[in-house]
Amino acid sequence: SQNALEDVSWRLVDSVLQCSFRRSIRLPAYKGRFNLDASYYIFLADGESSEGGLIYKHRRQPLITNGIYNVTGLPQDVGGSRSPRLIKVHGALMFVAWITTVSIGVIVARFFKPVWSHSFLFGKEMWFQVHRMLMLTTVMLTSISFVLPFIYRGGWSQQAGFHPYLGCTVMALTIFQPLMAGFRPSRHAPRRQLFNWFHWSTGTTARILAVVTMFLGMDLPALDLPDPWDTYTMIGFVAWHVSIDVLLEIHSYCLVRKVEVIEDDRVQILQSLTYAEAEDRLFKQIVLTIYVCGNIVFLIAFLAAINQI
């Protein structure tokens, strides 16, 4: 209440508004006012006001201290954040899942079957084991991350726009994928082609929706990564993934064409195929290494941004 304040003053210097006031430590006459001789989490909200002095609701999440402090104690530099810890963990886990594990898992399954076809891990082909491990990790990270906003909000958020709806869709597709994979027909079964198509289309839909969901989530008040940096960085990641995908597709096409024009000589064919396989293996392993490093760079950038808000 303004009547409880004394010596109110303010000034505007170099576009910085400074204000000061005095008030009693205890205000027994004013209900709902906090005593200043106790420790609290300190909230700092800023927003707009009308010319008549009407204060509008703040658009950004308030800056909240990381711990409780006694406001009448000695001055100290207190840390704070505009994003709740649960929401930060939610965003971080989603970035780990959909920038690193799922993207690398898709690249491995799509392009490394012939490269690692003779390498085995725990009795299964290596490409399949790596793909399955990364995808199960994605399911685990997404599932953990999915429940955190509901814990923080205590239910459904009406102010988050399309983000929670798309998030629920992504979660459903994420769970559906491994369940469908569990009923995968044998390699030469008549329905295997149908399964492959459904598996690819479901996974691709989930990845596209996940990227859209992250685009929307980065600008929600509870997280609100720096603009326009977050949008440009996410666009950069999408372009990075697509460019690597296209590069490997072009390489695979050129390799097939190269094998097709080999001279019709058995020794020459065997020698050329062996050389082509070695060349293909080396190229794809180099590209995969570069791709993983690039994804980690994007991931670190987003995690650092989350840590700083």
From TrEMBL:
Transmembrane region(s): 92-112, 133-152, 164-183, 195-217, 286-306
Domain Cytochrome b561: 52-251
Pfam families in alphabetical order: Cytochrom_B561
Localization: Membrane
Keyword Membrane: yes
This protein's UniProt keywords: Electron transport, Membrane, Transmembrane, Transmembrane helix, Transport
Cofactor: heme b
InterPro entries the record matches: Cyt_b561/ferric_Rdtase_TM (IPR006593)
Gene Ontology cellular component terms for the protein in this record: membrane
Main location: membrane
Keyword Ribosomal protein recorded: no
Protein name (database record): Ferric-chelate reductase 1
Organism of origin: Phoenicopterus ruber ruber
